[in-house]
Write a structure and sequence with these properties.
- This protein is of the alpha/beta class.
- The chain has a four-stranded mixed β-sheet with strand order 2-1-5-6.
- Helix 2 packs parallel to helix 4, helix 2 crosses helix 7 and helix 5 packs antiparallel against helix 6.
- The longest helix has 27 residues.
- The N terminus is likely disordered.
Amino acid sequence: MAASTSAAKQAAPKFRYLSAWFCPYAHRATIALEHHAGRIEYEWVEALGWEQRKDDNNVTGTGKEWWYHWKADELKRANPHALVPTLIPIDNDGKADEERSVYESLISIDYVDAVANPSDETQRLVPTDPYVAAKCRYWAERLNRECCSPYYGVLVRIEESEQKENFDKLITGLKAFSREMEKNGDARGFLGGGRLSNADVSLMPWAFRYYIFEHYRGEEFAIPVDDPELSAYKEWYNYVFSLESVKRTLPDKHRYLDHIGKYADSSARSKVAEAVRRGVAAHEIDDEKDTY
């Protein structure tokens, strides 16, 4: 009985992970899950994708068809917003408990970390020290606003001046992030010393995807990584994307470049795209206003 009880305590938590290969918001949860590989088990479910519908009136102005999201029934049941990432715990009998599903990308990072509960402090994405945890949370949310949401403004907004305005906001945010890391003495993670935090994971999916700017918007939209004000950011980028647990999560660059063209040519219909079209930031989506 003692051995059985011990085994039960050591059993890794299991989840159905409702995701989408292309989604940077879901990518945050994927990075957290792979960071804790061995402490958490999950089954990937591709729960959101794209389908074409006719644009008879050429509303896109490109002569291309609309691209709409399709969403799995399981996703619509488990998440009131029907968005990825969504984590559904699997009980000891192998049954998925949709009533206890967890969603929203920044929340999912913290939740995965809490469930994994590593004994090694350096493996925690959310530090146990309350001050350091608060600092990381502040930066996770700030990076979401300043370096992630403007990504969609560069892509979805039609006027070049608006695209440039969003790009400049993004660069300003990256420079602030870079300055903050310089205080650590090294930029091997936001906290330095090679440790990942939820602040790092907040930014990483978008940092990986910035390469698409130059392709769709021109050379002037390339991230100026040789700018001295971004030297810590460059060091950070090279470090985090060298980690094996991160490498396992990265989508193919050519495949993603083709995918994101739907946003660049204004044919994508999604909550994020609709929010940006009506003039608000991507993180300000509204279920009632951003319908499609």
